[in-house]
């Protein structure tokens, strides 16, 4: 089961990475929304959206596999994690923000929240990113 999840996450990260390179963000989000549509069979008791361990496991898998995907940026990982969570019936919110680094260069960052808590990409938020207007998306 874990091996299948890792393979699915790897393919999803690659699709998102290529999608960000070849398509617009809105087109990619439409594709991800289609992929993440609710399944006919509800998950079993240990795989319900109310089980916080499910979200932790899914996000952790995206983070682990994302290290092996070339140029899997924070946006790539956040979009993939949001789609994977939505596929499991778990809502999240994607944020994209900007900040100036120590040299004054503009930097961008994407992160994912669930119920107001950062679940992916929080390690870089100490830089005080300002969320871009309109760049906040509810779950797919």
Written overview of the protein:
The chain is of the alpha+beta class and 140 residues long. It has one domain. It has 4 helices and 4 strands. A 4-stranded antiparallel beta sheet has the order 3-2-1-4. Strand 2 (106-114) and strand 3 form a beta hairpin. The radius of gyration is 15 Å and the shape is globular.
Please give a quick description of this structure:
The protein is α+β, with helices and mostly antiparallel strands and 140 residues long. It has helices at 2-22, 25-35, 52-66, 74-87, and strands at 93-100, 106-114, 117-120, 130-137.
Could you state the order of secondary-structure elements as H and E?
A: HHHHEEEE
Helix fraction by DSSP (H/I, runs of at least 4):
40-55%
What's the shape? globular
Rg, Å, rounded: 15 Å
Binned strand content:
15-25%
Distance between the termini: 24 Å
Which spans of ≥5 residues are poorly predicted at pLDDT below 50?
none
Beta-strand segment tally: 4
The number of domains: 1
Averaged pLDDT: 87
């Amino acid at each position: 089961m874990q091996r299948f999840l890792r393979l699915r996450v790897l393919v999803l990260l690659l699709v998102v990475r290529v999608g960000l390179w070849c398509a617009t963000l809105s087109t990619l989000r439409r594709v991800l929304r289609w992929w993440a549509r609710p399944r006919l069979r509800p998950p079993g008791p240990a795989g319900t959206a109310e089980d916080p361990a499910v979200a932790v496991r899914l996000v952790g898998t995206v983070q682990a596999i994302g290290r092996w995907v070339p140029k899997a940026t924070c946006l790539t990982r956040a979009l993939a994690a949001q789609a994977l969570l939505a596929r499991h019936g778990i809502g999240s919110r994607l944020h994209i923000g900007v900040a100036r680094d120590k040299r004054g260069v503009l930097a961008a960052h994407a992160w994912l929240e669930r119920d107001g808590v950062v679940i992916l990409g929080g390690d870089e938020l100490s830089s005080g990113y300002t969320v871009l207007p309109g760049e906040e998306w509810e779950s797919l």
